[in-house]
Write a structure and sequence with these properties.
four-stranded mixed beta sheet, 17% helix, 123 residues, alpha/beta, single chain, 2 helices, 2,3-Dihydroxybiphenyl 1,2-Dioxygenase, domain 1
Length: 123
């Protein structure tokens, strides 16, 4: 096997309308695909060269301790203020490291999502 790229990252969700309100309404992501079949519901958002999906499917369970995706933002303080204004729960941060600013929040199912901005010297 030769792995060429990461095809997508996926967060399991339990309530698709509630999840879409968060990912589209709070995070501002643009829907690029919405597909239902065989008891599954799959939604995708293309972000730069990557794809973030949310899904309801057999065997997928949300988890606050699973893998997480960090979303690169153009204005970290504004993103944090927007999340705080929407009363989105923070898991930790915001913090500053030598190379970035980051915080992790929870989606409506408790999945961990990073909000991230690289410092100009680390692009």
């Amino acid at each position: 096997m030769k792995v060429l790229d990461i095809a997508f990252s996926c967060y399991p969700v339990t309530d698709m309308p509630r999840a879409r309100a968060f990912y589209e309404g709070i995070l501002g992501l643009t829907l690029t695909m919405d597909h239902q079949s065989d008891g599954a519901h799959w939604v995708e958002y293309e972000i730069g060269p990557a794809t973030l999906a949310i899904a309801i499917a057999p065997g997928l369970q949300p988890s606050p301790i699973g893998c997480s995706v960090a979303l690169e933002v153009d204005d970290f303080p504004a993103a944090i203020a927007s999340l705080q204004a929407a009363s989105i729960p923070f898991q930790f941060g915001p913090i500053e490291t030598p190379v970035c600013h980051m915080a992790f929040v929870s989606d409506p199912d408790g999945n961990s999502i990073g909000i991230h901005q690289r410092k100009p010297s680390h692009h």
